[in-house]
Design goal:
Length: about 60
């Protein structure tokens, strides 16, 4: 997982299920750096049903 990721900042105010594109858009709006955006774009799942599922996907090596 990217060191700069502060997950609550990026998912606050978003409802699950959440698409990968929704998460990327939110991160961009909040000024995420290029490294974080690349990490999010590389996520293997296109739709997340919960924060736990998102955390599990972020923990997997890309």
């Amino acid at each position: 997982m990217a060191d700069s990721l502060q997950l609550p900042d990026y998912v606050a105010g978003l409802d699950f299920p959440l698409s990968r594109e929704d998460l990327i858009r939110r991160a961009q709006e909040l000024g995420a750096d290029t490294s974080l955006l690349q990490t999010l774009r590389a996520l293997p799942v296109e739709r997340f049903t919960s924060v736990d599922q998102l955390l599990a996907a972020l923990a997997q090596p890309s």
